[in-house]
Amino acid sequence: MKNNLFEFALNSLLRRGSKNIFITIIFSLLIFVLSSVFLITNALKTELYSTLEALPEIIVQKMVAGKQKDIEIERSDQILQISGVDDAIARVWGYYYFENQGVNFSIIGIDSYENQYKENLAIIADRFTDTLNSEKPSMIVGQAVYDILKQNYYEDYFYFVKPDGDSKEVNIGGIFKSSTNLESSDTIVMSKELVREIFNLDENYATDIVVKVPNPKEVSTIAWKIKELYPDTRVITREDIKVSYQNIFDYKSGLFLAFFILAIFTFFIIIYDKASGLSSEEKKEIGILKAIGWKIDDILTVKLYEALIISATSFFFALTLSIAYVYLLEAPLLRDIFMGYSILKPEFKLPFSLNFQVIALLFFITIPVYIAATIIPSWKAATLEADEVIR
Amino acid sequence: MFYKKSKIYFLIVVFIFFLFSVEIIYLNGNNTFNSNEIQQRSLYIQMVSLPDLAISSETRSIRNRSLSDTFSIFNEGPEIRDFFPASFIYSPSPNLKLQPSRITLEK
């Protein structure tokens, strides 16, 4: 009997073929767009959270009149005195605006004499020669920076313009490997002394201080102690950064969802309207079925099958398409919503991770509503007397 | 016992599931980072210790958003969405042929 009803539902859908195919296409399209946005958000989130653990636990910045200013290096020694702090490193970094292309590079200074950095650089950079330390100043650049410099005929070296107008020639010592593209493409790493020279920074000052705390339970207490010690500082913990990631993605996918809700509600209103004002033909069909002895159960089962066939098929079809669109085609157009419009756009793969929560969320915001919008009007018609419906 | 149309429908469903599975298997094999790549990224982050992704270098709201910079003026304003055209003031370079952003002056 169940198979008979299923076959009947299929036939009934095919009888109104063009209309149902149209609904399936529109429904698939809506689910496709929504799931693509969710999948991109999820991929970028996975990427961000996977690198989060490697970040320092606390970042300390000096604030003057609401703006960040350079912080005294001696403060790092004071912070190191706090029990529980493993290391406090004064960091020197900043943005360099490259006028010819209208882009900003992030320049980061490291202690080039430390062996650990040398080893790490050898692992993460190609074409790396041990030149960061040599007499001729050099730097390691991200892939996108390298491409931009190359376009401007700086293949082996680059002239930085210092604040006083002088220029500083720096060799390109290496390029970061493509696996780090998402993080490294706009960065330039060089020795701290060189960064100070290019930005004309006082050697007693640093951009900010990063604090390493081995015990995660102590982070909030230490952050509070630093704030007590230096009330003019802004103390950012790794947890704060995590929250801000959450915010930006919630904001972006939320904004999109808000637009999308409009579209999907319009769709459901059309479905509901279509179904509640069942065409006289459809009403007649229900009436005849009742007259020849069908129970309300059977009629509703057929309608349920009809709704399930359309919605579930659309859902899985759209999901399959959107996974291909996001991960195989790298989400052209939609990706730009999350990318901004930098000229230094990195070439990278969105890392694949299938989040069942996301799929379940998609499933529950689309399919039950569609089924309800189809079943309820049919139930209303099916509960009426047969002669009343036919008439 | 299946009827003809049900059979065709089930074949379509099976085909979609087959595509879905092939996609998942392929992506699992090719689009995930291997341990070597994860280690490289982790070492990079440890070295530069800057958060955020390099997906937009012009707006503070994405790249190193949690940290301050020296060229944005209204970045502390809570009501201004920290997005490039909204929160930055700068004059494009005179020798710049490219449009630096989507800001255009209305004439």
Q: Concise description?
A:
The complex is a heterodimer of chains A (about 400) and B (about 110). Chain A is α+β, with helices and mostly antiparallel strands and about 400 residues long. In chain A, about 55% of the residues lie in helices and about 20% in strands.
Element-level helix/strand string of chain A: HHEEEHEEEHEEHEEHEHEEHEHHHHHH
Per the principal axes of the C-alpha atoms, what is the gross shape of chain A? elongated
What is the SS-derived class of chain A? alpha+beta
Cα(first) to Cα(last) distance of chain B is 73 Å
β-strand amount of chain A: 15-25%
Oligomer: heterodimer
Secondary structure: helix percent of chain A? 55-70%
Largest sheet of chain B: none
Q: Can you count the beta strands of chain A?
A: 14
Number of helical stretches of at least 4 residues of chain A: 14
How helical, in percent, are the residues of chain B?
A: 40-55%
Structural descriptors:
heterodimer, A: 391 residues, alpha+beta, 2 domains, seven-stranded mixed beta sheet, five-stranded antiparallel beta sheet, 14 helices, 57% helix, elongated, B: 107 residues, mainly alpha, disordered C terminus
What can you tell me about this protein's structure?
The complex is a heterodimer of chains A (391) and B (107). By secondary structure, chain A is of the alpha+beta class. Chain A has two domains: 2-51 and 244-390, no CATH class; 56-237, no CATH class. Helices cover 57% and strands 18% of the residues of chain A. Chain A has 14 helices and 14 strands. Chain A has helices spanning 2-15, 17-52, 74-81, 115-124, 143-151, 181-184, 192-199, 219-229, 238-276, 280-291, 296-328, 334-339, 356-382, 386-390, and strands at residues 58-64, 67-69, 71-72, 87-91, 93-98, 103-110, 125-126, 138-141, 157-161, 167-176, 187-191, 205-206, 208-212, 233-237. In chain A, the strands form three sheets. In chain A, strands 5, 6, 7, 8, 9, 10 and 11 form a seven-stranded mixed β-sheet that branches. In chain A, strands 1, 2, 4, 13 and 14 form a five-stranded antiparallel β-sheet that branches. In chain A, a hairpin with a 2-residue loop joins strand 1 (58-64) and strand 2. In chain A, helix 2 (17-52) crosses helix 11 (296-328) and helix 9 runs parallel beside helix 13 (356-382). The radius of gyration of chain A is 31 Å and the shape is elongated. The model of chain A has no long low-confidence stretch (mean pLDDT 81). Chain B is an all-alpha fold. Chain B folds into two domains: 1-32; 40-93, no CATH class. In chain B, 42% of the residues lie in helices and 0% in strands. Chain B is built from three helices and no strands. Residues 68-94 and 97-107 of chain B have low confidence and may be disordered. At the A-B interface, helix 1, helix 2, strand 5, strand 6 and helix 4 of A face helix 1 and helix 2 of B.
